[in-house]
Amino acid sequence: xxxxxxxxxxxxxxxxxxxxxxxxxNLRGRWRELHSPGCPLHVELGCGKGRFTAEIxxxxxxxxxxxxxxxxxxMVVAMERVTALGLSNVFFLSEDAARLPDFFAPDEVxxxxxxxxxxxxxxxxxxxxxTFRSFLMEYRKVLRIGGEIRFKTDNRPLFDFSLDEFPAAxxxxxSLTYNLHSGRYADLPTxxxxxxxxxxxxxxxxxxxxxxxxxxxxPIL
Length: 221
Hints:
By secondary structure, the protein is an alpha/beta fold.
């Protein structure tokens, strides 16, 4: 996501400092201390401006949500949304998704959301996609056996590409649709999704379950 630099970014980030985790390595294996023992832990990769983040956290106060967003100009909007709602079950990281094992211990995460990530078109950029098998293998290190990845995109080529990557990385695709808003499915929208839906763009969605042994090996092609 590319956004204009905001001249007031630093003070806005500071005002949301209570939910911005700047030393996530120190919470590795201890995230539930921020909410309640034994609570589900869900991680969102690329939360953008946080419409989905805020709405799903508000609807599920028993779940601890950690939103990862590399673009601070977007993350601050998401944090302000969460703060305005008075939510205490959402925290934010301005980090790279490839580093999840540095921040979360094995088996610590119950569910990962990947919503409308950059499709990185062209074969030479495939390894940058958040659903490329090398990324998926990193997610496996923190996701519990039986845990899920829920992936949404408006980009059909990215979705079709991902349908091959998930099984290659040891995930079983338990459900998929090429038209999320066909009336058969219900899901909270992201900011992007609301725009795409208004324009009549079909939304693809899948759920992938980690069932294989944690020692599963996937060759990175």
